[in-house]
Amino acid sequence: MLAKAGVLIVATDLFGVDARKRLERTPLSGAYAQRVSSLLHLIDILDAEVVTLAARIAAELRHDGGYRAIQALPGVGPTLAAIFVAEIGDVHRFADPGRLCSWAGLTPRHYESDTVVRRGHITKQGSKLVRWATVEAIQRKTTGKITADRERIAETARKEHREDRRGPQTAHPRLLRPARRPYPRPGQGRGVSSPDAAYAWSPMSLTSPLGAWSPR
């Protein structure tokens, strides 16, 4: 709307207090002024509803220990905490953090044939709201360990020429489980005797079909 009217308001947050005042003082003509005024009015209505519902949620969950405890996680505020509590329920029904992550669909798909194991994208099974809330929290605030894990995974993916996989998405389960569960990542070759042996795989270990052939 502002672009159509040829107006540019330089602000980090266009809906912040300072930018809002500048927007209200901006001279606009005809339908542009009416449209901006209408949109600002709708924002005020929605903000009032958000405040009302947030207060009700806080009142409903004020005695819930899990609601208070989960807000200690980085990036989790009252709203996201309420989503986790409502969707997960009693967290003790999961034997360990890894099973909670699996239930939420934040663990990678597992493909296995004989001695070859491959990990794919996250399963995206379970509650969509839990995955959304986890992503929101991780984007809002992170920790040094999560950042280091994400960079390490992305670097490994680049070395394997798989830049489009696992980098950002595998950081999200770090919010739901306190410790990273290491999983094997086999190499590109076949005949790996064990998952751990995949880390030591090297193309130099394969024998050329021509052996020691020389044109001489």
From TrEMBL:
A Pfam cross-reference name: Transposase_20
Highest taxon listed in the record's lineage: Bacteria
GO MF annotation list: DNA binding; transposase activity
Region feature (Disordered): 156-216
GO biological process: DNA transposition
Compositionally biased tracts (Basic and acidic residues): 156-167
Cross-referenced InterPro entries: Transpos_IS110, Transposase_20
Amino acid composition bias (Basic residues), ranges on this chain: 174-183
Protein name: Transposase IS116/IS110/IS902 C-terminal domain-containing protein
Occurrences of domain Transposase IS116/IS110/IS902 C-terminal (ranges): 68-139
